[in-house]
Amino acid sequence: MAVRFDWKFAQGFVHPDELDKLQPFVTDVHQRLHAGEVPGNDFLGWIHLPSQTLARGVEDILAAADEIRQLADALVVIGIGGSYLGARAAFEWVKPEYYNQLPREVRGGPELYFAGNHLSAAGLKDLLRVLDGKRVVLNVISKSGTTTEPAVAFRVLRDWLVRQAGAAEAKRRIYVTTDRARGALKQLADAEGYRTFVIPDDVGGRYSVLTPVGLLPLAAVGVDIVALLSGAAAAEEALATPSLADNPAYRYAALRNILLRKGKTTEVLAYYEPALRMFAEWWKQLFGESEGKDQKGLYPSSMGFTTDLHSLGQYVQEGMRTLFETVVRVVRDDTGLTLPSDPSVDDGLEYLAGRSIAWINDQARLGTQLAHADGGVPNLLVEVEDRREQSLGELFYFFELACAASGLLLGVNPFDQPGVEAYKRNMFALLGKPGFEAMQAKLRERLGP
Ligand code: PA5
């Protein structure tokens, strides 16, 4: 596998025996997961999704992606949560940081923007400004088809597109990814004749990056989705064993469980490449929504190092000892970037002249892992070979499986998210949505004048 797991910087905190003692529980979780005998078992489609999607083929997605490349200067992906984070994580992982600023012939695809992941008017207005004068294609993604944030953004952007390109052309430039049959978005897509892609019933939002939710926009900007799926399929095969000795995803899940029981209630996902920022956001949603329920669960947070070593690093080193850290490290450096020699300048850096920037970054990583472990923060390490699609596919699957196992070891249903409804009910009431009248009156009274 291109993904490796190492816990040597946590060994002062967990004895290997403790892992062995969890083996029967992990075996049980593995068997029940594969037999479909777990809570939330109507959402287990992700387990064999990579191999099944490869077997079925992705020609329809690749053809639509080609169309989008022809039609668009800019693609806007509208979605939130699981209908957003995976695509953005993979885009930022695989593509260069300043992708949109590169010339089209270097990029190879349309510019890519994301909308519908907030309700900020200023954010939406800024996007409209940057889209002005461009040929724009919209890919609106919502499994339920009723989520407010993407629905609001879609209405604004669709209205804008119709005014820019005319109703008939706008129709050609809207791609909808939604449920097979249900929801307002599906009805609208059918009524308007938009090109539609289906999110499988048995795959929940945060597990959906390898469905058309992620695959269509990623293919449109030239991400190799077959390699992404192949990597995930390789992990699906390699991680199909219950043995903690042979399954690094289960080892990671078991260690999380042990550390939580020892009072390490926050996990920091740390990364040393800015390209992993949105991957960390995807990871936070995966673990936060899967485990944070029944007043249980690790709090998933993230830090970008070395940047955050100059801010939150102080807390990690010396704050409350309730943290552990999982570092995701990209091993290979393809940049060829080294520190130039300049003996004429006395900046104290000449001893590093000729060293690669990646090597310097990795010494910072090693020094930090040692310091944080010495300071009482157990450190886990997930290494991934490179930033290619195949490796990322493996990593997606690694964390999906680890998350499912971890949630089940914790005794929660890792596939539901009942808690996200509370704010929605209040918001609907305050917005005056039909059916919420009584609740609106109560909430307005509580809020006062
Ligand atoms: O993981 C989940 O299920 C959620 O984060 C959803 O993806 C998110 O709420 C968006 O839902 P929908 O795709 O229905 O618009």
From TrEMBL:
Keyword Calcium assigned: no
EC number of this enzyme: 5.3.1.9
Record's keyword terms, sorted: Cytoplasm, Gluconeogenesis, Glycolysis, Isomerase
Gene3D superfamilies per the UniProt record, alphabetical: Glucose-6-phosphate isomerase like protein, domain 1 (3.40.50.10490)
GO MF annotations, alphabetized: carbohydrate derivative binding; glucose-6-phosphate isomerase activity; monosaccharide binding
Pathway where it operates: Carbohydrate degradation; glycolysis; D-glyceraldehyde 3-phosphate and glycerone phosphate from D-glucose: step 2/4; Carbohydrate biosynthesis; gluconeogenesis
Family per record: Belongs to the GPI family.
Primary role: Catalyzes the reversible isomerization of glucose-6-phosphate to fructose-6-phosphate.
Family annotation (NCBIfam families): PRK14097.1 (NF010697)
Name of this protein: Glucose-6-phosphate isomerase
Organism: Alicyclobacillus cellulosilyticus
Gene name linked to the record: pgi
